[in-house]
TrEMBL record:
Family to which this protein belongs: Belongs to the MGR2 family.
Ranges annotated as spanning the membrane: 23-43
Function: Induces production of reactive oxygen species (ROS) which are necessary for cell proliferation. May play a role in inducing oxidative DNA damage and replicative senescence. May play a role in the coordination of mitochondrial morphology and cell proliferation.
Origin: domain of life: Eukaryota
Pfam families: Romo1
Keyword vocabulary terms for this entry: Membrane, Transmembrane, Transmembrane helix
A GO term from the CC aspect: TIM23 mitochondrial import inner membrane translocase complex
Record PANTHER family: REACTIVE OXYGEN SPECIES MODULATOR 1
Single GO biological process annotation from the record: protein import into mitochondrial matrix
Signal peptide range in chain numbering: none
The protein, known as: Reactive oxygen species modulator 1
Length: 79
């Protein structure tokens, strides 16, 4: 199957590249949202210092992974 070429000679990204990019974008957005929500929820229950950093980091990784996975699935469906 020939590679599709854009109007200026560049080739289109593969489906795997699009899924990978969707995951990275979703992970970044999820980490930002996790930083906001994690900070407020950890402060609300009274965490301080090292415990606060661990709780916020855990929330950031969880929300980043979750949102990244759904963005990757959506990009996979698109291509």
């Amino acid at each position: 199957m020939p590679v599709t070429v854009g109007p200026y000679g560049q080739s289109q990204p593969s489906c795997f590249d699009r899924v990978k990019m969707g995951f990275m974008m979703g992970f970044a957005v999820g980490m930002a949202a996790g930083a906001l929500f994690g900070t407020f929820s950890c402060l609300r229950v009274g965490m301080r210092g090292r415990e606060l950093m661990g709780g916020v980091g855990k929330t950031m990784m969880q929300s980043g992974g979750t949102f990244g996975t759904f963005m990757a699935i959506g990009m996979g469906i698109r291509c």
